[in-house]
Specification:
There is one protein chain. With about 70 residues, the protein is an all-alpha fold. The protein has three helices and no strands. The longest helix is centred in the last third of the chain and has 15 residues.
Length: about 70
Amino acid sequence: MGRRPDLWGTALRQVVRLAPSGWWRRAPFLPVPSGPYLEFRAVTQYGSGDRPPTPSDVVNYLSWCKRVDR
């Protein structure tokens, strides 16, 4: 991600879009998507909810988001 500054804006937009409403009122006070949403995404991509995304998967996802936003 650090090597792809063209995706920084897209990453920021996705953080805002995926953050649950009122995230600033609940610990850990970070705009992190909900656990059930992240598990759903992992199951649909990898077939298992306990596998974290690889950096290349994140870059591919952000590249796709950037193309779709145009």
